[in-house]
Amino acid sequence: MPSQFRTLAFAFVFLAVGLLFPFTTVFAAPLKVGPAPRAANITVTPPPATPASNTSRVYVQPRYKIASQTRAQSLYIRVVDAEGNGVSQATVKITVRNTSTSETQVVNATDSSGYTSYALSSIASSSGAKVLVKVEARWDTANGEAETASAGTSYVVWP
């Protein structure tokens, strides 16, 4: 009996609100919609270009963001000039560091598209340790000037 009473009470309240609702809109003020107010002399200034957009870059990506202690980790590297074109024959140096050791290695020069890769030797890391990688590239430009760029990444070692 109590559940029937609740259902009946709910139906009565629902009906009463439904009947009252149309009458409440009669007493409400009408909504006016018009044009938006005019903006007063607003000038949009684009942000200044970031220096990185006009400079050479190095991109580095580890094969595994969570690397195994028993599986080799590889790094994929690309060197590009200020126009975004790959730099060939760039000398690439990699420094790998964890909490207790640091190793630096010069790897193969970049190919004609600016790519190179490197399989890291197993750096002694305990499970859960974060390994930091810094990549530095150096090359000679067409006018004989030396140019450099660097980047970094990291990965975590897990069993």
For the largest beta-sheet, the strand count, sense and barrel status come to: 5 strands, mixed
Q: Roughly how many Å apart are the termini?
A: 63 Å
User: How many β-strand stretches?
Assistant: 8
> Measured on Cα atoms, how large is the radius of gyration?
32 Å
Written account of the structure:
The structure is a single chain. The protein has one helix at 2-27; strands at 57-62, 66-68, 73-80, 91-97, 102-107, 115-120, 130-140, 146-158. The protein has one helix and eight strands; from the N terminus they run αββββββββ. A hairpin with a 4-residue loop joins β4 and β5 (102-107). The radius of gyration is 32 Å and the shape is flat. With 159 residues, the protein is an alpha+beta fold.
Q: How is the secondary structure organized here?
A:
Blueprint lengths: L1 H26 L29 E6 L3 E3 L4 E8 L10 E7 L4 E6 L7 E6 L9 E11 L5 E13 L1
Parallel strand pairs: 2-8
Antiparallel strand pairs: 1-3, 3-6, 4-5, 4-7, 7-8
